[in-house]
């Protein structure tokens, strides 16, 4: 098992997953809490806003009631003036005083009566200013005159007293419904208890109510400098008030001109169309909410932290089996444990994973065993083959080699790995085989022979190089198969030798005769010394065969060849051409006489009876002689000798004849 493979990842994944789960749970809890808080805040704002508006509506209704009540009161005073008294200012005073006393209230600053032209006719209280006053041009007087109905003035700063007042006016009509007098009752807005009462409704400690006309003139405001000022007189914009002037009623959140956020509520008075407004600074309104938010934030944070921690612990525990699976796999890889530890896992997906691993590794181990066995078999075969098997890389070094290298060169397989060819086979041999190797690296299978001494014994080896082609077409290395051809070569040589020797007689056969004659003729031409050729045939050999059998015939042939061999010079070559036909090449014969002498010697030698298994056999031979000439071809020389033989036969056999060209 290899140990160079990358190590298994450490337990970071478990830690990371647990941390991610913890952070997610923490974030989710915090998010849920904060969004719930946001919803609660919105709800609370609505509650506060609605509450403000309800209170304001109550106050407005209260003011309306008071205004209408007073208007009715003044109207009742005016219409209650007896007909004879309507322009009798003197008589009117005690009447009015009596009536006002009846009301039992001190709510009016003064009751003043103007005539139809607007001139002041009667004042129940003493006026601090000039006695001559005219009401023409005032909004309440003109409106009363015009509508002949009771009216409420816009808020006014009294020219007489400097008080902030409103005036309730009612017409006094004569029988012709003409306005003959206008009764007015002035009310000090701020002292009458009319605003004071509603100011008790101010929201919180920093909130307040304010009142303005439909046109935006401030009637009541805690900041006295703004009284009777238009709202626009203070720089800045209050969106709420702008909208209220445009007709909005209800509550909203807006930024005040001083820059702080507030809840504003607006309600119009029915009697005067004035706008009663409440401002409740958000800072105070939501102070409890802020505390609540802080508390909620901390408790949510705590809760989220606890939940996150819990998630962390749970995920850590859930992943523990995965950790143990990882540890088991690591132990298996380190050979500290067998794969069996994976089999008996939990009954869940991780256990499944372990069992799947086990199955996979069992299959792997099985195929590993099979591969090892097959490799062993192959190793056994290759190591016992009388063949060198190796793989040579591009650096001309052996990558591996079989045991034959050890047997032949004394280099073990372990020592061979990485060893250069030159070191194993010798520099010279290596130089001889490099060209063939290069061809193999070029992508071609190559076979060549090489002579290498193996354990001191010169051997002829045949090497075959097979390129190891890669998928990309390159050649990574070369498989080398080398076998010893020495014995084959020897046999081959023997065979070749055999092919040149006559098997029956052991002298040269026709083939060797042809080769020898060829070379002998060359030599004869170079030395200018002619050679002689004798063509021999055993006389009536058929008869010997016929009378003694073929075996005896063979014995005669063998003896004939032997006598021929011993009867000639070492430089001469006797050969059997076929059947009972023989030839002898006499090199450097010199003369015809010499040739005839030799032929005569042969004829003589063959007359001696042949000792055979069938007893002595008498035989003789006829010889045809020819001498080579410079321009005479081999075939012509042979034909000449044959022709001479024919002549010798014709002359009665047992003798020789010379070719007479
Ligand atoms: N025993 C034996 N006989 C052979 C062999 N080769 C050829 N013969 C026989 O040798 C005889 C040769 O006969 P020929 O050369 O035609 O005639 P011959 O009887 O020698 O007569 P002449 O040549 O006219 O003197 C034939 O009968 C062949 O069958 C052989 O290897 N062994």
TrEMBL record:
One of its GO terms (molecular function) is catalytic activity. The chain crosses the membrane at residues 20-40, 296-319. PROSITE patterns: GGDEF, HAMP, PAC. Residues 529-661 form the GGDEF domain. Residues 444-497 form the PAC domain. Residues 357-384 form a coiled coil. GO terms for biological process: signal transduction. Residues 316-369 form the HAMP domain. PANTHER family: BIOFILM ARCHITECTURE MAINTENANCE PROTEIN MBAA, DIGUANYLATE CYCLASE DGCP. This is PAS domain S-box-containing protein/diguanylate cyclase (GGDEF) domain-containing protein. It comes from Massilia yuzhufengensis.
């Amino acid at each position: 098992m290899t140990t160079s493979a990358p190590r298994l990842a450490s337990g970071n994944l478990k830690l990371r997953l647990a941390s991610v789960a913890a952070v997610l749970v923490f974030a989710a809890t915090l998010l849920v809490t904060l969004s719930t808080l946001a919803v609660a805040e919105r709800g609370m704002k609505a509650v506060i806003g609605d509450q403000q508006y309800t209170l304001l509506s109550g106050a407005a209704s209260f003011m309306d009631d008071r205004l209408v009540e007073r208007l009715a009161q003044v109207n009742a005073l005016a219409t209650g003036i007896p007909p004879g008294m309507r322009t009798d200012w003197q008589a009117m005073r005690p009447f009015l005083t009596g009536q006002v006393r009846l009301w039992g209230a001190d709510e009016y600053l003064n009751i003043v009566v103007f005539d139809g032209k607007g001139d002041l006719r009667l004042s129940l209280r003493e006026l601090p200013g000039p006695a001559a006053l005219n009401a023409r041009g005032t909004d309440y007087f003109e409106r009363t005159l015009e509508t002949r109905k009771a009216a409420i003035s816009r808020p006014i700063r009294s020219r007489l007293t400097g008080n902030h007042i409103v005036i309730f006016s009612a017409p006094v009509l004569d029988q012709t419904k003409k306005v003959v007098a206008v009764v007015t009752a002035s009310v000090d807005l701020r002292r009458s208890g009319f605003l004071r009462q509603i100011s008790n409704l101010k929201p919180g400690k920093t909130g307040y109510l304010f009142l303005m006309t439909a046109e935006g003139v401030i009637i009541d405001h805690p900041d006295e400098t703004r009284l009777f000022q238009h709202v626009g007189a203070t720089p800045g914009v209050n969106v709420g008030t702008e909208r209220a002037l445009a007709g909005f009623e209800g509550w909203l959140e807006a930024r005040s001109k001083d820059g702080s956020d507030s809840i504003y509520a607006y309600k119009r008075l029915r009697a005067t169309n004035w706008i009663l407004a409440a401002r409740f600074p958000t800072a105070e309104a939501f102070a409890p909410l802020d505390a609540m938010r802080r508390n909620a934030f901390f408790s949510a944070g705590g809760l989220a932290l606890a939940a996150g921690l819990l998630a962390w612990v749970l995920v850590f525990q859930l992943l523990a089996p995965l950790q143990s699976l990882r540890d088991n796999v690591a132990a298996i890889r380190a050979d500290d444990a067998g794969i069996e530890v994976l089999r008996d896992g939990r009954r869940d997906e991780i256990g499944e994973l372990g069992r799947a691993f086990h199955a996979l590794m069992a299959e792997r181990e099985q195929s590993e065993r099979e591969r090892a066995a097959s490799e062993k078999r192959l190793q056994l075969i290759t190591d016992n083959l009388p063949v060198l098997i190796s793989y040579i890389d591009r650096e001309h070094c052996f990558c591996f080699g079989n045991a034959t290298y050890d047997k032949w060169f004394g280099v073990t397989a372990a020592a061979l790995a990485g060893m250069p060819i030159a070191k194993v086979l010798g520099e010279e041999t290596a130089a001889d085989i490099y060209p063939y190797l290069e061809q193999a690296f070029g992508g071609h299978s190559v076979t060549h022979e090489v002579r290498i001494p193996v354990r001191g014994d010169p051997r002829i080896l045949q090497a075959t190089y097979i390129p190891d082609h890669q998928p990309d077409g390159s050649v990574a290395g070369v498989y080398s198969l080398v076998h010893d051809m020495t014995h084959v070569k020897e046999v081959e040589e023997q065979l070749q030798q055999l092919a040149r020797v006559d098997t029956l007689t052991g002298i040269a056969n026709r083939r060797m005769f042809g080769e020898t004659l060829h070379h002998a003729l060359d030599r004869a031409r170079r030395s200018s010394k002619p050679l002689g050729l004798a063509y021999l045939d055993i006389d009536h050999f058929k008869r010997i065969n016929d009378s003694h059998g073929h075996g005896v015939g063979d014995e005669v042939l063998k003896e004939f060849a032997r006598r021929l061999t011993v009867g000639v010079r070492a430089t001469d070559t006797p050969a059997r051409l076929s059947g009972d036909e023989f030839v002898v090449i006499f090199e450097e014969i010199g003369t015809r006489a010499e040739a005839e002498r030799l032929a005569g010697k042969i004829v003589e030698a063959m007359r001696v009876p042949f000792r055979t298994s069938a007893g002595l056999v008498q035989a003789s031979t006829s010889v045809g002689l020819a001498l080579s000439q410079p321009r005479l071809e081999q075939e012509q020389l042979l034909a000449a000798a044959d022709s001479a033989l024919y002549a010798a036969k014709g002359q009665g056999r047992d003798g020789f004849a010379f070719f007479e060209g």
